[in-house]
Amino acid sequence: MKTELLKILRETDDYVSGQELCDRLGVSRTAIWKRIKKLQEEGYVIEAVQNRGYHLIELPDLMKTDEVRSWLSSKWLGKELYYQESVDSTNTWAKKLAEEGAPNGTVVLADEQTAGKGRRGRTWKNPKGANIAATFLLRPQFMPEAAPMLTLVMGLSVAQICREMGLDAWIKWPNDVVVSGKKICGILTEMSAQVDYVNYVVIGAGINVNLSVLPPELKEIATSFYLEKKEVFPRAQIIARVIEVFEENYEIYTKTNDLSQLAETYNQMLINHGRQVKVLDPSGEFAGVSGGIDRSGRLSVKKEDGTVVKVMAGEVSVRGLYGYV
Q: What is the purpose of this protein (predicted)?
């Protein structure tokens, strides 16, 4: 009932009478009053006026399941939704749930992440109450070699929502979303698989939303929604939209089990596209001009001698010739 009550209050510009809420939710006035009191205790500013009803004045910035569900209209992704105030890593938590039999489309969320995972063993910390830490659990019906490309599907989805929210967002291949040349989202995909069968895939995204202060070592390479727009964004709305858009992109992806139908859109948002880059390969660094991705998610890089190299995510890192992008 809480989810539906939040939807009604948020989507109504004026007061909603207690009787209308009773009729729409099929409960008593007492039940409505108790639920309103509970919402007020959680930080929702709700005005109650006799003979007029209830009016939602202000939303707290919460990531709890009922708040996210009140924004969410996906078909299957996020129907199983879990939230904890603090976890070490949402990916670790999602993998534990996967091993326990959690279904395809499960989404886990945390308000704080103390030991989040980054690419190549790096950590990704998520301070309490400021950002989004989310992991999607999928049980796809394709071969294991198709799973790494889901990192790019997530990157595209997050970048699209950043733009929807008014940010000039771009994708830095393969797993970062950037705004103003700085990282606003990092993505990590992990898989449990047999030789010819995927048990499950977890895709984690850490999105900087209402982070207002960055440590000195990150000021030149990271940013947030708040730092870019100087306003607080509802994190529940953002992650709900990411869930919805990722679901759409994932369904397109699984029609062919490659990026053939998403590559054009992805390349239009690729900040590396057509620029000088430095490829950090374990076998040796080299420079070249970045092209777009192909259907397998490989990045084309044209070296100075005219040779075109197809760079595979997971094997190398790509940087701008003179900096991060």
A: Acts both as a biotin--[acetyl-CoA-carboxylase] ligase and a repressor.
